[in-house]
Amino acid sequence: MEPQPASSSTKKKYWGCLGVLVVLLAIVLVIIIAGISTWQTRNSKRVEEALAKIRSNGEPTTAEELSEFYSLTPGATDQTDDWLEVVQLLQQMGKDPETMEMPYLGEGAEVPTTSQPWELEQQAQAYLQRYETLVDKLHTLGEVEGETRYPLNFADGFGARLDHAQTLREAGRLMRLQAEVAARQDDAETATKSLLASLASAESLKREPILISQLIRMALIGLAADQFESLVPSVAFTDEQLERLDTALAKIEMGDTVRRALIGERAFGSIAMSDPAVRESFGPGGGFMLNTDAALLGYLDYMTRLIEASKLPIHETLIESEKIEAELETEAESSFLARLRLMGAAMLLPAVSAVNTASARTEAQLLGSRVIIALERFHRANGKYPETLEDLVPDYLDSLPIDPYINQPLRYIRRSDHDVTVYSVGNNRLDDGGVKDEQKTDVTFRVVKPEDDEPE
Q1: Which of 100, 115, 155, 414 would bridge with 106, disulfide CB 3.0–4.6 Å?
Q2: Which residues, at least 6 apart from 77, have a Cβ–Cβ distance to it below 8 Å?
Q3: What pLDDT score was predicted for residue 278?
């Protein structure tokens, strides 16, 4: 029996159902589009409110505002031209083939202890003499206070060139080389000037609201601290020289500079999310993820929380920033929409916990250096080191130095009248005994003085 053709009524029912389905799909599509539009409108308004709140706090959100934010403290001496001259001289020095032969600056062999002969000593002296103008300029800047505002084009966002900051590393290395030469000549004054110049080169970056610049600043401070520790046993610093070093160390502040850099980084993120070229540089999907008000809102929210955390004491800042970053990671994995909203933040947020850790380490190095100065002055007066750090208060220290990692006093080990160790527990927050090793878990300073040192 052959199949009968579909009836006219059946065809009408089919097309009627199809029409209803199309209409329903259209309605759903309209609802989705309207929802997305409403969501975007709401997020756009929230972004405007968030940016307005940031501006009301006197903090930047655009390249123009960031340029104004990077300014000198009213009344401060402007040393910009001097440091730009130093940068230019350092760049010229870097082109000298002999620079590569020098320790620290190039590939020269490690400098032996002062009790051992140094094959390159005369060559190093001649090299320093050739760059006497640069060395004298650094020494002069190390003895005077001031601030610097290096020329930067913030409109370039994350692509802004930081050649000056990278070049300043060479200032620290050059001064380290000179301090080694000075130590072998029993020239405590030149060693002091070299240390002060290293610290001054770091502080020329103090006002720069960029995290990379602050990391370079911390590295320069750490270099000076390590150098001072190595010089103490062999260089007869006077009380006046030690006081000059202590004064310079006491003026260095970490928390506010990191906070300014976070504020600048937040502005950079806002600039990046407004620049199609920057968005696309994050690869496939990067442009889409960053091209939403929701992504910008997520970024601003987390960065603002990190900035607020930076206002806490450093040991609390470490804990809070690690907590915030962990929350971001967890929330970004919770759902597709959350991932969409926070992908921009995840891609653009700096490793703030690492920056805060570096800040805490630098703070520990500063405190450790100041304690070593106090111990050295005590030793010069008494011919031995004190039994406890409390013995340094109030004659040599105003108060006990507090470990920035755990908010407890720095540790002190007295092995003999002439052998002491001062240390912070470091990033693992565990007391590893102040042992100096490659892991550098504790931030440690050890000084062993000759046993024939007599009190002054």
Answers
A1: 100
A2: 144, 145, 146, 147
A3: 53
Q: Is 388 exposed, middle or buried (0-12, 13-18, 19+ CB in 10 A)?
A: exposed
pLDDT of residue 19: 66
Structure tokens at 305: 């929380």
How far apart are alpha carbons 55 and 47 in whole angstroms?
Answer: 12
Tell me which DSSP letter residue 404 carries: T
Break the chain into its structural domains and give their ranges.
61-107+119-252, 259-350
Model confidence, pTM: 0.87
Q: Supply angle C-alpha 252, 223, 373, rounded to 5.
A: 60
272 contact partners, CB below 8 Å, separation of at least 6: 157, 158, 278, 279, 290, 348
Q: Which of 376, 392, 391, 390 is nearest to 455 (CA)?
A: 376
What would the two tokens of residue 32 be? Answer: 């989705």
pLDDT at 157: 73
Q: What is the DSSP string of 169-216?
A: HHHHHHHHHHHHHHHHTT-HHHHHHHHHHHHHHHHTTTT---HHHHHH
Q: Which residues contact 386 (CB under 8 A, 6 or more apart)?
A: 375, 378, 392, 414
pLDDT averages per 10-residue partition of the chain, 456 residues: 57 64 70 60 78 94 94 96 98 96 92 89 96 98 96 82 94 97 95 98 96 95 95 94 97 93 90 65 50 77 92 93 86 71 66 83 96 95 94 95 96 94 93 80 88 57
Residue 349 CA: distances (Å) to CA of 262, 320, 342: 10, 15, 10
